[in-house]
Amino acid sequence: MSTNTNKRVAVKWIRDRAKSAYEKTDHCFICGGNVDLELHHLASINYLLETWAKKLGYDITTDAGVLAIRDEFIAQHHRELYTDVYTLCNRHHVELHGVYGKSPLPHTVPLQQRWLERRRDQATGKAPVAKTTGFFKDFT
Ligand SMILES: [Zn+2]
Ligand SMILES: [Zn+2]
Description:
The chain is mainly alpha-helical. About 55% of the residues lie in helices and about 5% in strands.
């Protein structure tokens, strides 16, 4: 199986073209910090590209193959590329992927949104931190 060999390269081509999709805000959504900012896509672009190309029978294992379809891919995935994104500091970005994995699956999108809002409320003191510890203690 060599179909995944160029996966990262394929996504790089998409990223280069969809530059404005990777524009960040000036602060982390969770803590408001302004250093080491990164952009998080709720939907894994890797996953979207692979399933979409497979469904349409597109070959994205070569650079030429990706270049041929990237405008079509971007046009059909504006929401995922441009809207469903969060600017996070490196620490909180790493934390999110620690919870939801390297390439979060589509069904985790609402879960990620809830997690992001809860972590923000915790960081700004609006919600208690680590409430679950006490909850689980009651059942031991
Ligand atoms: Zn942060
Ligand atoms: Zn991310």
